[in-house]
Amino acid sequence: MTAAPYGFYGDDFTGATDTLANLARAGLRAMLFVEAPTPARLATLGPLDAIGVAGAARALAPQAMRVELNRIGALFATLGVRVMHYKVCSTFDSAPGVGNIGVAIDCLRRHFGNALVPIVGGQPNLGRYCAFGNLFATAGGAQAYRIDRHPAMSRHPVTPMQEADLRLHFQTLGVSVNSLDWRAYAFPDAALSDAIENAGNEPLLFDVLDDAHLLRIGRVMHERSARTPMLAVGASSVAQAWAMAAAGQCEMTASPSLEAAQSPVFVLAGSLSPMTEKQIEAAHSYRRVELDPCAMHDASYRDQCRAQIADGLRAGRHVLAYTHRAPVDMKADAAPLAARCAELLRDVVAEVRPKRIGIAGGDTSSFGVQALRPWGLSYVAPLDRGVTVCRVHSDEAATHGTEIMLKGGQMGGADCFERLVYGRL
To answer: pLDDT digits over 331-349, tens only?
Structure first.
């Protein structure tokens, strides 16, 4: 098998497509697989600069994570990657019992021998910043909030962020982390290397305030991984740092513009985030179909919804199907609801075969992509900040070549769904 220098595992599908986009925008030949690729599949694609696997570790309990990530670690070690990127949400939200990033580090570092495990603490292009080990994030505007005071992430229903100091946050996840603050990036190379060595053998959290910091981190990753394969942890900023250092500059290559849709667009929104609600309200070009979360378990109800959606698409209308605001006691049923939404998506696509679709919501995206049964995704164009349109690669004619947007609840601007119809406005 031909080695790819860079490998990444996305702990959810939406974030994995953002990493794919950042690598592709840098001119790297990258493919995101929905399942671990076989040697035969890789052989059909020719040389790749980056190989990714989209997973669901963010929603798994620790033991299930260990099974999944030990398998993934062994795969990427066999492929000979120099950097194994465990891609997490840019807000680092995680809990001891679900999506535990500490468990991921413990599993994956056993497959990659480099003593340095960089944790890249911010992603400026998404409004994520790390200073003196503390994480800050914007919330759709210019103001940056300490993550434990963020209006959404401090109240996340599954993994609320209650500590801004990521070193303390990682302690609750069972891993000890050292840190390197942003002032060290002014050091000459030798002095920066000494600062890294003096930080010890624990995973090392790197502050990030701007792209120049990412460039410096990327140079460290290139230099150190050339000696011994390395595990790196963080959002798509890890890929940005790697690509910037490869290019020797902070600027990314120009992105292609998404063209307007030539046929009806279907969007399924399962996210309950305030940003997705704004996007639904602003989606004036769509016929709307509201889905009752309490009735989605009923096959006959889903069939009625499928018929309504299919009729709209066949009539040449863009259609947005969305779950209405669920009652509080529905939070515990998020995964079953996402699975039922995925079944609805699968049935609509099989019947009408829309050429462009969008899915909003982390769980909804993960279940939705799996229901469509692609083997991979490739990059088409950016849609909005942190939102990417990809092309489906599948052995099934109904979905092969379909353009698909996967969007986390907090990602994109209010006109995100409109952009999916008309291209980048």
So the answer is: 445 668 888 999 999 999 9
